[in-house]
Here is the input.
Amino acid sequence: MHLFINIVPQTQLDWPCLTTLIGEITDQHFADITLNLQLPTDQQLTAEQARQADAWSLTQNTRPQLSATDTTLLNLRETDHLLPGALQQWAQVTAQHAGSLVSLATFDSAEPVAAQITNYLADYQDSSTRLTLQQLAGDTPVTDTTTLWALQSYSVQDNLQTQRLLSQRLRLTGLLLPKALLRTDLPLVSLAQTLTVLQNSTDVVRLHVPTLARQAWSATTPLAWLDQLQSITVSDLDVSWQPVFTTYAQNQLNTLLDVAGRRALSASVHLQLLQRIKHLTVQPTRRWSRLGLLQLVSPRMAHRLFY
Amino acid sequence: MKFSLITPVKPGELAQLQGLKRNLEAQTTRDFEWLIATTLPIDGGQPEWQADFDIHMITLNTPTIGAARNAAMAVATGDWLVFVDSDDYLLPNALTEMAASQALTATTMADLNQYATYEPHVSFTNSLTPDTARDSLPKWGGKKRHAPKNRALNLTSELAATLPTDLPAEAQNWLQHKTRLYQGEQRWQAFDRQLKISGKVISRNLVQQAKLTFDATNALYPDYHFLTQVMARTSRYVVLANPTYIRVRHNDPINSPAVHQLEVPNRWHLRVAAWEAGLTDLTDSDLQTAFSTYTLRRLHRYLFQALATSTPVTVEDVPALMAQLQHYLQGVTPAAFNTTPRFSRQILRKIQRTGKLPQTRINTLVRLRQLNRVVRHRGRGITRLAYNWWFTKLPVKPRTILYESFLGRNFSDSPKAIYNYLQENYPGRFKHVWVMNPDVTETPAGQPNTKVVKRFGWRYMYYLATAKFQVINMRQPKWFVKRPGTRFLSTWHGTPLKHLVFDMDNVASANPLYKAIFYQQSRQWDYLVTANQFSVDVFEHAFMYPTQQMLPSGYPRNDILSAPDKDDRAHQIKVKLGIPLDKKIILYAPTWRDDDYYGVGDYKFTLKLDVARLKRELGDDYVLVLRTHYFITEHLDTTGFGDFVYNESSYDDISELYLIADVLITDYSSVFFDYAILKRPILYFVYDFEKYGSVLRGFYLDMATDLPGPLLKTNDDVLAALHNLPAVKQDYAAAYQRFSERFNAWEDGHASERVVNAFFADDLKD
Here is the structure.
């Protein structure tokens, strides 16, 4: 695997977060890697930052393309975190399944990762794999990282259209996308690109133990996520995918309404979001969902109810 | 470290043994010897038995598996005995991974991790392409709920180098070669898996010191005593985390049954004897309880069904079995009884006390199980239960005929032709019952003496049980009971093009026991309608069906194509479909391709035939009638082609479409056999001919030489042929003649008459 990591800032580039992320990547001493920062056109690095970026071999392209040597694309936010050994584990899986989309299990980067690991391992207290490791380790304490590596496993899934799993497979960051399935005429970070890859896949590989900490776009940049959802013209999709994507999009709109209501957005942006969603002419899948309710009331009323 | 692979071989297994040799040659280690124990006279000196690892042939006198394994163990020189059956195979890393796991100690029973499949080794190997994932496994052939979902990810050596240095070396190695370890309190977990000999790795030293042997006298169950004794002497059970031993289950129990598929009337006697031997020498109370629990579960799960009076007799000498079982149950750990359900436990206790068969209780238990299944499925299956319990006890209704075409999907095919013939020539003589799915619009409902019943409904079950005649063009349900006095006519539904049933190598994509089920179902057919001598020859080996029960009649459904009034009928059909009478008709009937749905890079549901160009160039003279798979039909967009395209994919009777078509375009579908009766031109649009190479190998016909029309790979070729049909006819006149003589010699328009006279003979007289 030669991995092209494309880092997409949330809105305004968070330089300390980027520094941390680059540190997590370089600490893994994984050679086959290319780093790119997809900086928005209205932002620029300072001279010092540019010098540092050069030192990291971090290129800056607003519309990056994979080179001939790259085999796999990973889009990340600068606020994401890589867990130790992540790159090695990804390389192992992609070596077995060179042409498959790899969906990565993740922790939430908004919460302390250490606490999440503790909770995660508590859930696997009695797993036979963990018990085997403990028996072999005897009295020696086993680190959390070692235990996560012990539990690591993957599965090959061919139920591509299963609604329950689509949020794992249709997202902009945190997926390993094989170059062979990418369309060069679409941006690397776009729902259209990810959807194309999924549609043209025969299976998806799921890496079960988290190797990454990230946040959903619906939580961090809901308007950008709404743009992405709206960028898909359902009638242009393959007929078998049309109902699948419609349901997925409606679920995502509900998620947006739910997440955005938790005052992560300013009141004005929340109202703007409601107005845009309201104008989408979609029938709600469930009447008693937030989306269903928004169809019945004005955005202003919905803002009062949800916010 | 050296492995001794032990393979017993029965007569008839030589070919698969050579397959296993090729498989072992791919092992990534050579630190093993292969011991083949057989009664077959194999000359180990022949070149085909040479390899870069040692192969030893051990000739046997006693032809049992147990004796074979004992003889091989006696001459083994390796530290570790590995039991590999001749029909199974290993993944290339199996032995390397087992060695690298460092799990093998004197007190370990190890396991290569068995993975069950019905896919033969050759089929699986042939299915691999350069793009196939490196960790591919054949299709899972075990119970669905037991299918392994996750694959363990081992640590790379680079990552392992970063592990804390105080972590014991054993644990560090384990992270790179993961296994599942059962010891201490977990020792007897996965007990069923522990009791399977295939893929086990056992210390030769342990076996020698304890003088452990397989039971050479028990032909079916030689392993229990050996395995329980090994278990008693080992403190750990270690299984590789990922499967490396592929156990190939037999998909053809009729011609090559596995040992457990053999129909042996004293199977239960041998099984109980083996259990008794396995339990006798055990001193560890936990192991005793685990083994007792295992055996009682098997009795609970399988014995009662075999002994119920509703089941065909498969167990001989039941009193002797009961006496044997009484003795065994008296030795079973009492605590194990508590693990079986109450009603089952009562039956087992009764046998333990009296040694007699509690037949009434067993019958009740089996019936309660059937009822429970219906309740669990919220009433689904209640009609079938009624069929089994009551309807099959009712008297057979004379002169009642049950018809079913394509599982009730439509009113068509040979059953329809036979029905029409009887209605026309013997009106009022019979009562006709048609099986139809609820959503079918065109049915014979309302016609004289005709009932339409819903498939699997109450009335369906009633008539299925009581109708004297059944006329069906596919297969009857698996649970159908052929009652004395009833007669079954299978019309089948086409001249075979693709390999059928016993000619198929790999049936893993269908029901893995498809061959056995088909065999049992086809034994219930009194007659099988055949369209030509070619079909007779194929059905004889593909269905293993006796030729004397085949009707050499031609297909009743094709009578319409030779009818004297076929032109009038064609006219009526055109009017019915709204097709202009002055236009000629192209019928396009492509076959369904599995990869239409998820073909990488393909635009699905798009016809490869350039309809727009066809319309542009031929629209003045022709219309196009489409006949595609119903799944495509629902998504096919034919707007924009105006009155050029008629999508008749859901039209009931394809024979009527043949009748109106002036030319047929098809590919790998068997429709051309029937259409050729009309002697009209046939074009084969095979744009993916090369890609279909592996599929075409499974055809009875050589598509390159046997066809009555040209193979066309591009739209240009198709258009050129359509523009010049007279030339095509001329070029293929001789081939068409040969084809017609071979496949359509019996089609003279009187097939229905011949079938009716043969099948209903006695009931046609006054």
Observations:
- The first strand of chain A starts at residue 3 and ends at 7.
- The longest helix of chain A spans residues 242-264.
- The CA atoms of residues 187 and 193 of chain A lie 7 Å apart.
- Residues 3-215 of chain A form a domain with the Spore Coat Polysaccharide Biosynthesis Protein SpsA; Chain A fold (CATH 3.90.550).
